[in-house]
Specification:
By secondary structure, the chain is an alpha+beta fold. The chain has helices at residues 49-62, 89-95, and strands at 7-10, 13-21, 28-33, 36-40, 69-73, 79-85. It has a single domain (7-95), classed as 2-Layer Sandwich (Conserved Hypothetical Protein Mth637, Chain: A). The radius of gyration is 12 Å and the shape is globular.
Length: 99
């Protein structure tokens, strides 16, 4: 299996490149955006609400605890790097077969 550019294994887990769109009608993964996964978030970007929504959504989607999802960079931007502890890039790709 070829590892996609939006997922990279590291010693603590897998690092994902994300493009986030806040204030959407619902929170969902919608596809690719360049070399990132595009995620729509129902929460607004104010006061970090979209970041909280993102971490909770990813934890549920990939079956890890909320504490296992960490935003590495881009807390105030649409482009983010997120670390998911305890998962590999191939495990993440298996959950996202359409990307």
């Amino acid at each position: 299996m070829t590892i996609e550019p939006w997922a990279r294994d590291c010693e603590r887990g897998v690092e994902l490149r994300l493009h986030c769109q806040p204030r959407a009608s619902k929170t969902e993964i919608v596809g690719r955006h360049g070399e990132a996964i595009k995620i729509r978030l129902a929460a607004p970007p104010a006061d970090g609400e979209a970041n909280v929504e993102l971490c909770q959504f990813l934890a549920r989607y990939f079956g890890v605890s909320r504490q296992d999802v960490q935003i590495l960079s881009g807390k105030g931007a649409r482009q983010k790097r997120v670390l998911i502890h305890g998962r590999t890039a191939s495990e993440i790709q298996d959950r996202l077969p359409l990307l």
